């Protein structure tokens, strides 16, 4: 199997590619898309309170006819409506129409209120009650995980983070820390080098294969369904799955690392332009602003509504 399941530190397993429901909205579209993903072979659905389509994901999962144990469901505590973790997981279970989820994540460290140890103790409690099989975090940095581990009885099974070649160097300490503590890294937005910064030296299968080679579980998606003809979108999904067969050599991986470290083509062009034109207060201000925006996009700060 190309996307083999990965062991988690609590004795369970996670399918190493997941289908996410962010940006799909409500109604028929997410049902059709999750249904299509399951029909081509995805067995891992990644949703969140914040995506507001847990209900639709649940419908598609039930309509797939798969037994509950054949599908891995992740959802996230996003602090929706200011509700606490216990109330939120109970709402999510109702929305999804299941008695447990496989993985429950704190969506972002700023949602761990009143503090990380207290929020994590609540995660441990709902796990002990069987509402969630595995517990983890998302968008945590090394400092956040260190605070969590200092008081944890149960280690997080996973940390779901932004990971693609343009942020690889910045995320490397997190990857190393997670490996040391046997925490699985789940990578979201691996395709940013083609969706947000097209023109670089990588395509979708290569990016997914690179992410897999870095040891991460891939969380991807496909949001549009072409009405009356789903074939090309189905092909895209099959392309994601087939990327699991790509064997990158150490040289391939290194050249993607090196290209990634240079930053996206837009940022490189922008920097060259600035150097060429030089001076000018307006240009400098625009340059600083542009650099800040690119920096924020790369660090994921502009993306946390997901
Ligand atoms: N924990 C978090 O904070 C967090 C944050 C972000 C995302 N996530 C999770 O990760 C999932 C995936 O996130 P993402 O959307 O950022 O993932 P992604 O894997 O980076 O991007 C998926 C998008 O790539 C597009 N795509 C694929 N192949 C392409 C090609 N050859 N050319 C152009 N576009 C192409 C698809 O567009 P089409 O839809 O048009 O096919 C699809 O919407 C989300 O649904 C969510 O579950 C979690």
From TrEMBL:
Superkingdom of origin:
Eukaryota
Q: Which residues form the NADP-dependent oxidoreductase domain?
A: 17-191
Query: What is an example of a GO molecular function annotated in this UniProt entry?
Result: oxidoreductase activity, acting on NAD(P)H as acceptor
Q: TM segments? A: 283-304
What are the record keywords, sorted? Membrane, NADP, Oxidoreductase, Transmembrane, Transmembrane helix
SUPFAM superfamilies in alphabetical order:
NAD(P)-linked oxidoreductase
Q: Which InterPro entries does the record associate with it? A: AKR, AKR3C2/3, Aldo/ket_reductase_CS, NAD(P)_OxRdtase_dom_sf, NADP_OxRdtase_dom
The similarity comment for this entry is:
Belongs to the aldo/keto reductase family.
Among PANTHER family, the record links this protein to:
2,5-DIKETO-D-GLUCONIC ACID REDUCTASE, NADP-DEPENDENT OXIDOREDUCTASE DOMAIN-CONTAINING PROTEIN
Q: What is this protein called?
A: Aldo/keto reductase
Organism encoding this protein: Mycena sanguinolenta
- UniProt lineage: Eukaryota, Fungi, Dikarya, Basidiomycota, Agaricomycotina
């Amino acid at each position: 199997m190309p996307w083999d399941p990965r062991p988690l530190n609590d004795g369970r397993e996670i399918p190493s590619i997941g289908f996410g429901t962010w940006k799909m909205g409500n109604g028929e579209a997410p049902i059709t898309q999750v249904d299509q993903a399951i029909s081509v072979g995805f067995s891992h659905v990644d949703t969140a309170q914040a995506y507001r389509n847990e209900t639709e994901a649940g419908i598609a999962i039930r309509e797939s006819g798969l037994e509950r144990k054949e599908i891995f469901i992740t959802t996230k505590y996003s602090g929706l409506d200011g509700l606490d973790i216990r109330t939120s997981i109970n709402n999510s279970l109702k929305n999804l129409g299941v008695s447990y989820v496989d993985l429950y994540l704190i969506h972002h460290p700023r949602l761990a209120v009143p503090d990380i140890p207290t929020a994590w103790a609540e995660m441990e409690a709902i796990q002990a009650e069987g509402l969630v099989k595995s517990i983890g975090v998302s968008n945590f940095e090394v400092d956040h995980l260190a605070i969590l581990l200092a008081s944890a009885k149960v280690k997080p099974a996973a940390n779901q983070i932004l990971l693609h070649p343009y942020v690889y160097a910045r995320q490397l300490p997190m990857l190393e820390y997670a490996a040391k503590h046997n925490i699985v890294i789940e990578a979201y937005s691996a395709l940013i080098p083609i969706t947000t910064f097209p023109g670089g030296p990588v395509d979708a299968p290569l990016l997914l294969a690179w992410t897999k080679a870095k040891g991460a579980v891939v969380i991807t998606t496909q949001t549009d369904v072409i009405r009356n003809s789903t074939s090309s979108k189905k092909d895209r999904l099959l392309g994601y799955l087939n990327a699991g067969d790509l064997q990158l050599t150490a040289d391939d991986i290194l050249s993607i690392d090196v290209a990634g470290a240079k930053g996206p083509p837009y940022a490189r062009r922008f920097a060259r332009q600035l150097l060429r034109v030089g001076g000018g207060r307006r240009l400098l201000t625009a340059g600083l602003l542009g650099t800040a925006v690119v920096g924020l996009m790369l660090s994921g700060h502009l993306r946390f509504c997901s």
